[in-house]
Design goal:
By secondary structure, the protein is of the alpha/beta class. It has 13 helices and 15 strands. The chain is 43% helix and 18% strand. The radius of gyration is 23 Å and the shape is globular. Helix 9 crosses helix 13. The strands form three sheets. The chain has a ten-stranded mixed sheet with strand order 6-7-8-5-4-9-14-11-15-10, with helices on both faces. The chain has a three-stranded antiparallel sheet with strand order 1-2-3, with no helix packed on it. The protein has a two-stranded antiparallel sheet with strand order 12-13.
């Protein structure tokens, strides 16, 4: 290995050049930063290196806290790759100001499947922080830029409005330690950060959002992860890892060409494509859900923004199902093909549409005398009760296992949200699903801006 020191950098921050790869870039070798190096308890050489890829587009409200959260993680070897995807706000300026970035004076010696890269910067304070400035190409394009520019064997796809618990990576990487030859992806739990107190990239105090709309989403997230994904993982059929917090084997994702540019739900698509590719090549693999690691994200607090987000989710879900329709019911793809995909299509894609039709037909049936009131009430109580059970199961799973919401009043509010969502909120979501379907049929492919207010730094 040919490495040499450089006299062009300040004496206090000597640099080395390792010319065994394309990274003949200067890496500061400071033993401590002015703000102090985060304590890393686990330094085992058996932990694989992780590149944290963080796409950012107009994220000035949360970008500093998110990056600080990544840099504070307790993990032996990480590289944080922030990809500025053509932001028009002060995202880059905030990064430069807070992390003392300097341009890397070197060309990238291979082609990156992304829009043009204008510059690459490294922090003078944190040697593990790399910032890529490129033309706007969408989230998938930004993820590909970071995926191809990291040399770590694993990469963690993270949203720029996400704060990760300090010990989260140590849990999320566990499937790769237990089955290093077969593990290709793992996902953790996403929780709502609205109204939580966050300082220096760390969640200091957990609290429920002040608005009912955001509070309903807290309960939704608990149900989705502790009832939905935990159950699919037990069946070895996890087909969705949240784009806000997922860990992947770098080389395998590169093998399938990275993230597709023509999808707006890249997190769903990439996992389904991994299943499809690995089954078609007859490779043994695992995709896991790990309930312990937690990432916190800001959710929409207004119906307008939430509706925009959910319409996009539904459009992307339909697009992914249509793209991979040959997998649905196909035993060639194992349990994912013959059971999980058909179940997902019926429950998540078709189910909301049928439910919406039912809300239209119900008053008509009553008006024309076709409605059997006894049967309707029994059916309503059965379906609503089952939905409440799943919601409460998610809440109690959180209370019994992790107890982040330790106040009895907060737990009671979550249980109440599990009941309340069935009267108005659930019906509104069926309307949103139909709107998403119409947008898909019209060919709408816009992402839609997610307005951020920034993480709370409240003092109680």
């Amino acid at each position: 290995m040919a490495c040499s020191s450089s006299a062009t950098t300040p004496p206090s921050t000597p640099a080395i050049y390792c010319c065994t790869s394309w990274r003949c870039w200067s890496f500061a070798t400071t033993s401590a930063s002015p703000s102090g190096t985060p304590f890393r308890e686990f330094t085992s050489p058996f932990y694989p290196g992780i590149g944290i890829v963080l796409p950012a587009y107009n994220e000035e409200a949360t970008i500093v806290e998110s990056v600080q959260s990544m840099l504070s993680l307790n993990y032996p070897e990480i590289e944080v790759v922030v990809v500025n995807d053509g932001s028009t706000d002060a995202t880059v300026e905030r990064l430069v100001e807070h992390f003392d970035l300097e341009p890397v004076d070197a060309d990238i010696p291979f082609e990156v499947p992304a829009e043009e890269i204008h510059g690459v910067y490294r922090s003078r304070i944190y040697e593990e922080l790399l910032v890529v400035d490129k033309d706007n190409g969408g989230k998938s394009d930004a993820l590909n830029a970071g995926l191809w520019l990291t040399e770590m064997p694993l990469f963690c796809a993270v949203d720029s409005d996400t704060v990760i618990d300090r010990e989260a990576l140590l849990s999320l990487v566990r499937p790769f330690l237990e089955a290093p030859t077969t593990a290709v992806a793992s996902g953790g739990v996403i929780r709502v950060a609205n109204n939580c107190r966050i300082e220096d990239g760390v969640v200091k105090d957990v609290s429920l959002p002040k608005t009912g709309l955001a509070g309903l989403q807290v309960m939704e997230y608990l149900r989705a992860f502790y009832s939905g994904r935990l159950g699919l993982n037990r069946l070895n059929g996890l087909i969705l890892i949240s784009g806000a917090f997922g860990l992947f084997q770098t080389e395998t994702v590169r093998e399938i060409g990275g993230y597709r540019h023509d999808t707006i739900t890249e997190d769903f698509d990439i996992v389904v494509r991994l299943h499809r590719h690995l089954k078609e090549t007859d490779r043994e693999y695992t995709v896991d859900f790990v309930p312990e690691p937690v990432a916190w994200t800001e959710v929409p607090s207004t119906r307008r923004v939430l509706g925009r987000q959910r319409r996009r989710w539904y459009r992307g879900m339909v697009e992914t199902v249509v793209t991979h329709r040959r997998m649905v019911g196909n035993p060639r793809y194992g349990r994912v093909g013959w059971f999980v995909m058909p179940f997902f299509v019926m429950a998540e894609t078709v189910g909301p549409l049928i439910e919406g039709i039912g809300y239209v037909l119900l008053p008509l049936a009553w008006y024309f005398g076709f409605l059997n009131v006894e049967f309707f009430l029994a059916f309503f109580l059965l379906t609503t009760g089952f939905g409440i059970f799943l919601s409460w199961f998610g809440v109690f799973s959180e209370v019994w296992s992790f107890n982040r919401y330790d106040s009895p009043w907060q737990v009671l509010r979550l249980l109440w949200y599990g009941v309340l969502e069935n009267f108005g909120y659930r019906q509104w979501k069926t309307i949103v699903a139909w709107q998403g379907l119409f947008e898909y049929l019209r060919g709408v492919d816009t992402w839609g801006a997610m307005e951020r207010t920034g993480f709370s730094t409240r003092d109680d």
